[in-house]
Design goal:
Elements: E1 6-10, E2 15-17, E3 21-24, E4 31-35, E5 42-43, E6 47-56, E7 62-64, E8 67-71, E9 74-81, E10 86-91, E11 97-99, E12 107-111, H1 120-127
Antiparallel strand pairs: 1-2, 1-6, 3-4, 4-5, 6-7, 8-9, 8-12, 9-10, 10-11
Length: about 130
């Protein structure tokens, strides 16, 4: 079985955190509470939960849902495809997709919340 890793984006403080623990509903398997460093259990709605894809980029950086990666000169966002139940890469400003396994040839350049060096206009078109 593959290791499960998560990170959370704190909507209020606008920072990425590593959760200490997650609590899931027994019937729906949906997360409902999270514990982060320095705080007790809080409702999951205060955060955006992102799962590790199981892959790392060419520099060994773990790739999570919501990350922005560059392959050659093309920038992709890591997204979860609910229909296929898999992660995939969606090209920014396009509807083109790549298999998630190609992320091993990429470089993580940021994520959809901490928007790195990308133009705000290009991100707004793709992410919102």
């Amino acid at each position: 079985m593959r290791e499960q890793k998560f990170r959370v984006w704190d909507r209020i403080q606008e920072k990425m955190l590593k959760p200490q623990a997650l609590s899931f509903d027994m019937q729906s398997s949906a997360p409902f509470a999270v514990s982060v460093p320095g705080r007790s259990w809080e409702p999951i709605g205060k955060y955006i939960l992102m799962q590790w894809t199981g892959f790392s980029d060419s520099n060994g950086i773990e790739v999570y849902e919501g990350d922005l990666v560059r392959i050659s000169s093309i920038i992709y966002k890591v997204v979860w495809n609910k229909t296929l139940a898999t992660f995939e890469l969606l090209e920014l400003g396009s509807f083109s997709k790549c298999e998630i396994s190609t992320v091993e040839c990429s470089v993580v350049i940021g994520n959809e919340f901490q928007k790195s060096n990308l133009s705000q206009e290009k991100l707004r078109y793709t992410l919102f």
